[in-house]
Structures are given as structure tokens and as C-alpha cells.
Amino acid sequence: MSVRSTLPRSEVGAQSPHPDRPPRVGEGNLTDVSSRVGEGNPVDAAQTAEGSSTQPAARRSRAARRRRLTIYALRVLFAVVWLGSWEVTTRLNWVDPFFVGQPSGVVLRLWTWITEGTALGPLWLQAAVTMQEAVLGFLVGSLLGVVFGILLGRIDLLAEVLSPFIKAANAIPRVVLGSLFAIMFGLSLSGKAATAVVLVFFVVFFNAFQGVREVDRNLVANARILGANNRRLTTEIIIPSALSWILASLHISFGLAIVGAVVGELFGATAGLGQLIYNAGHTFDVNGVFAGMFLLAVLALIAEGLISALENRLIKWRPSRVSGEIPI
């Protein structure tokens, strides 16, 4: 006599004859299998990791942007407070404007020079003359400073022989040299450029010299082992390693080149911003003196921006600054 199961046919087929046995490969619910396959998808994992990495980067970018805006706002605030206090104190006669001038008077003097010209001619011509002298002195002084700095940094004997002469020349006041160049070259452009050359040369020279001396000796030794001669060692190891030192000196040097050009013009010139400032000082035009100084500052800032762009282009391998950092 056979006993039939009272369970429905569908439930009989669903039950496993061995409930304690683990399921074999291929057994089980297909829905569960497909859900497990999706859990280890490398594409989804990569997208998740990318999203998690971009979130901190976005936060850092926003923080850097806020920091830059804060710095610019503080700079503007400082300028407003400084110029505003200057204007208020002179208008209230707490300070005599005859001796210190007024910001409004400086702006008026600049506008007069721009629209009507100066006593020496158009304003753009005075700025062009001074920039020509400064740029020429900057280029010549930088080139001589780099060449002699690398040469003396590489040759110890030459450095020891010339060391006392370089130190003595660096101790000579530049104003004395300015008067000497005025006698030697007269009112020509060469005298002002020569003063700028002297001011630029020593700054670039000492930086280039120290940059060569600070090159990693292990790097030089490895290059020697690989068969590098003196020429390749200098052009491919020494100069690139010292480039950071050299470019750092250029930021200071162009300002000194402008100083040299103006000092040369004070000893005698027929045009230039230095001569314009000299004439304003001798006519007790304090606003004119400040206006000339303002123009020199603007030219120096423009040159600084160009030098910074050149530095970023030549030293791309340098580690990037901290997020939001703004150079001085």
C-alpha cells in the first residue's frame, strides 16, 4: 500500500531532500545569485572611490578660494584704512598737508600728468625712459651675476682668489658709484643702466654662488659615475639645481634695478621718473613726489608678475604651494 504525500505539488518540488546539506554550485535562488554578482562590481567600486576622493578635493578648493578672497579683502581694507586715515588727518589739519601731501592731491597730480603731460614731456615717455634703463641694467646685471656665480661656485681656486675683491666691491655705497658713473657717462642712458647693473649684480651673484654650493653632492657623484663630463654636469645638474636660488634673487633684483635707474637720474638726466621726482621735490610739490613713487611701485608690481610667470614656467617640477597660499 503506497502512501501519497498530502503536500501540494509545488511545495514538494521546493523542498530539498537533504535539508542539512549545503547547496551545491548552481543551486539556490537565481535572484540571490544575481544580487551577489552586483555586490563585487569593480566599476561601482571605482566610482564610489572616485566620488569619495573628489569630495575632499572640492572642500580644499572651496577653502582655498575662501582664503584667497579673505586675503584680497584684507588687503583692500588695509589700503582703505591707510589712505583714509591719511586723507582725514590732513583735511582736519592734524598733520600739515604741505609736508606729507594728500591722497586726493596725489590722484589729482597723476590726472594732470596723464591729461596735460609733465614739465619734461608726456608721462608715458618718462615711464618708458626709466623702464628702459631699469630693464637694461636688470638684464646685464642678472646675466653677469649668474655667469660669475656659477663660475666661482664651480671653481674653488677662483672663488678663493676673488673673494676679498668681491666683498670689498660689495661694501662700496651705490650712491658713490652713481655719481662716478654720472661723471664717466654723462647724461646718457649708460650711466643709469650701469648703476642698475651694480645693484642687480651682487644680489644675483651671491644667490647663484650659494645655489651652486648647495647642490646635492650625491647627485653630482652619481652623474660622475654615469659618465657625465663637466659641461653636461653643469648644464644638466648644477644649473637646474641652482635655478630656484637664481629666480628667487630676480624678484628682488628688478626692484633694485628701478632704484639704480632712479638714483642715476637724480645725478643728472633730461627725462625719466627719477628726474620728475627730483623736480617735484625741488619745487616743494609733495604730491608730485608721491605720484612719482606710486608710478614706480606700479611698474615694479607689473615686473614682479612677469617674473613670477617666468618662474612658474621654468620650474614646473617644483612642489605646488599649500592650497590657498598667496606669495608675497
Report what the structure shows:
The chain has 328 residues and is mostly helical. The protein has two domains: 46 residues; 213 residues, MetI-like (MetI-like fold). The longest helix is centred in the first third of the chain and has 50 residues. The N terminus and C terminus are likely disordered.
Quote the beta fraction. Answer: under 5%
Order of helices and strands: HHHHHHHHHHHHH
Would you tell me the structural class of the helices and strands?
mainly alpha
Helix content, binned percent: over 70%
User: How many E-type strands?
Assistant: 0
CATH architecture of the largest domain: Orthogonal Bundle
The CATH topology of the largest domain corresponds to MetI-like fold
Give the number of helices. 13
How many structural domains in the coordinates?
2
Identify the CATH homologous superfamily of the largest domain.
MetI-like
Compute the gyration radius: what is it?
36 Å
Briefly summarize what is shown.
The chain is mainly α.
What topology does this entry show?
Blueprint: H1 9-14, H2 30-39, H3 42-91, H4 97-100, H5 103-116, H6 123-154, H7 156-171, H8 174-185, H9 189-213, H10 217-225, H11 230-266, H12 273-282, H13 286-314
Helix pairs in contact: 5-13, 6-7, 6-9, 6-11, 8-9, 9-11, 11-12, 11-13, 12-13
